[in-house]
């Protein structure tokens, strides 16, 4: 188990339900892989420094998690596929 | 012969002036002097001070950061860029929003 910081940017045009749904999916993956989520920080909708997928805004979430390192590759693959996620960043702490 | 020496002398002078202009003011690394400040990609207010107006990472000779911390600053700026907290290039988002 290692501590990781995960930032996901979710598409701003989605309603709250879809945003939370996507977030729950990510959380679900982590807990199923034997990880834990210590904290979820919602930064809300904020302007991005440049356009991503023709959007000027994004909904930012910061997750402080503990995950097994072998799981990172799988998580990245899943995040790339998950439609509402525009960008993600995984940082080992 | 005299002419040749003249040009060389003026060349030396120019080079002297050049290096003098680039001599940095005595500076210190602000992260070494204040160890409580953590360089983090989320702290955009701090990282913004280490980028030029067009978004480039400012060199050490301008900011006075030591080599160790400059590497850290550069890495964190690149992380912040990836999640669109900082621009790769061009103006800040405040300008774009308006």
Secondary structure category of chain B: mainly alpha
- Range of helix content of chain A: 25-40%
CATH topology of chain B: 30s Ribosomal Protein S18
**Major beta-sheet overview of chain A:** 4 strands, antiparallel
Please give the number of β-strands of chain A: 4
Low-confidence regions of chain A: none
- Oligomer category: heterodimer
Given the structure, what is the number of helices of chain B? 6
The CATH homologous superfamily of chain B corresponds to Ribosomal protein S18
Global shape of chain A: globular
Number of domains of chain A: 1
CATH superfamily annotation of chain A: Ribosomal protein S6/Translation elongation factor EF1B
| Shape category of chain B | globular
Your description of this structure?
- The complex is a heterodimer of chains A (93) and B (98).
- Chain A contains two helices and four strands; from the N terminus they run E-H-E-E-H-E.
- With 93 residues, chain A is an alpha+beta fold.
- Chain A has a single domain, classed as Alpha-Beta Plaits (2-Layer Sandwich).
- Chain A has a four-stranded antiparallel beta sheet, covered by helices on one side.
- Chain A is globular.
- Chain B has one domain (29-97): Ribosomal protein S18 (30s Ribosomal Protein S18, Irregular), CATH 4.10.640.
- Chain B is 56% helix and 0% strand.
- The longest helix of chain B is centred in the N-terminal third of the chain and has 21 residues, at 2-22.
- The A-B interface holds A 7, 9, 47-50, 52, 56, 58, 60, 62, 87-89, 91 and B 41-42, 79, 81-88, 90, 92-93, 96-97.
């Amino acid at each position: 188990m290692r501590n990781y910081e995960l930032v996901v940017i979710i598409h701003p045009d989605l309603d709250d339900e879809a945003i939370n749904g996507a977030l729950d999916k990510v959380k679900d993956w982590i807990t199923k892989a034997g990880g834990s989520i210590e904290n979820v920080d919602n930064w809300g909708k904020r302007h991005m420094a440049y356009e991503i997928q023709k959007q000027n805004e994004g909904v930012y979430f910061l997750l402080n998690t503990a995950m097994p390192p072998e799981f990172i590759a799988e998580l990245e693959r899943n995040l790339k596929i998950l439609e509402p996620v525009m960008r993600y960043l995984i940082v080992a702490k | 012969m005299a002419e040749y020496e003249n040009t060389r002398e003026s060349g030396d002078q120019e080079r002297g002036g050049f290096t003098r202009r680039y001599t940095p003011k005595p500076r210190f690394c602000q992260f070494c002097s204040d160890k409580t400040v953590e360089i983090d990609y989320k702290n955009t207010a701090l990282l913004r001070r280490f980028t030029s107006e067009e978004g480039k990472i400012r060199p050490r000779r301008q900011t006075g950061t030591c080599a160790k911390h400059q590497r850290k600053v550069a890495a964190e700026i690149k992380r912040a860029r990836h999640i669109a907290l900082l621009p790769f290039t061009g103006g800040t988002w405040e300008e774009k929003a308006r």
